[in-house]
Design brief:
mainly alpha; DNA polymerase, domain 1; hpI Integrase, Chain A; three-stranded antiparallel sheet
Length: 406
Amino acid sequence: MASIFRRGGKRTGCWQIHWFDDTGKRRSKNSKTTDKSAAQRIANKLEADAALRRDGVIDPALERFAQEQHKPLETHAADFRAAVAARENTPKHVDMTDSRVRLIIEQCGASQVKHLTPAAVQNVLKTKRDDGSSLETCNSYLRAIKAFSRWLWLEKRIPDDPLSTLKAFNTASDQRHPRRELMSDEITWLLPFVEGYTLTSHNLPGPDRAMVYRLALGTGFRALELRSLVPESFNLNGNPPTITVQAGCSKRRRTDVQPIRRDLADMVQPWLAGKPNGKPLFARLPGATAQMLRKDLAAARKAWIKTAENKNEKERREKSDFLRYEDSAGRIADFHSTRHTYISNIVASGASVKTAQELARHSTPTLTIGRYSHTRLHDIVGGARGAARRARSPWRAPANIKGNRY
């Protein structure tokens, strides 16, 4: 039977309750009352509920859901943020996910879990769409709130996932900033130009910026992954040579050992000589990598136009898309275009879909096929080494760069 008592036999203070729960475990609880009769009634209620659970009259799971339903949604959101951070996601990803979840919760007017309905979320996304947000942006908000909803279900805070039926928007019909790949001739001109181009405003000197571009083009690494590289990340004498990105800096949270071409390894080796162990090689890589590449492209294009041998050639170059940040079709060449170029070259080389997926480090082949199908994925029949057999390396400038055709 449930019992009540006061600590130390004191005549003041709240009554404490002892009772046995439905599993037979002894429990204690503060009644939060100095009234003995009220405390005894609470104790009797706790004991009666335990008996009903033992007999199956009260379903513990449903009771738990009812308790979670009454918690403020803010409490669940804070717990979700902690869970996302505990999975070793980057601080940027944690902050972005948290802010998007909270914005949808706020605009839904949701204070409890039951208010987070598919209709309410769809109305928020519709408002964002009407305000000019792209479908890709709307999808990013949808992914965040669906991840939150699924987490609530997996944590047994709700009986089912209410947002599981919501589908992502088709972004193909609303591409605001389509990317283009950098052509081999553009790379051939850009890299040696950047190597000798350093201004006082540059975070990185020309040789280091050129190496950032070479590594991005030769591995498909993202900016965060490049920032994490230290001299120990490189195994340039292996067969094949490789570069390793640790799980904490990889987007897919896995240690990635990426093979690279031998000619790229040969260029990295002398650049890497003398670099201190354990120190990030690109710690000063600016956050606005797209702006960095945009400025380098503009400077390289200006220099390329200036080398025209006559007026007609100069006019032709000025009208061309060569080294433009945005081409005549509206496609842009931002820093992520280096990854786009890397994967497109793999696909065009004749690699299998599985090989292309592995080198792209995509979670599914659907991502590779969906984003790079324009590079003739349906014609893929060869192996991963096809890219290494290209007639000339894009990493080095030809002997007479002025004589090249662009």
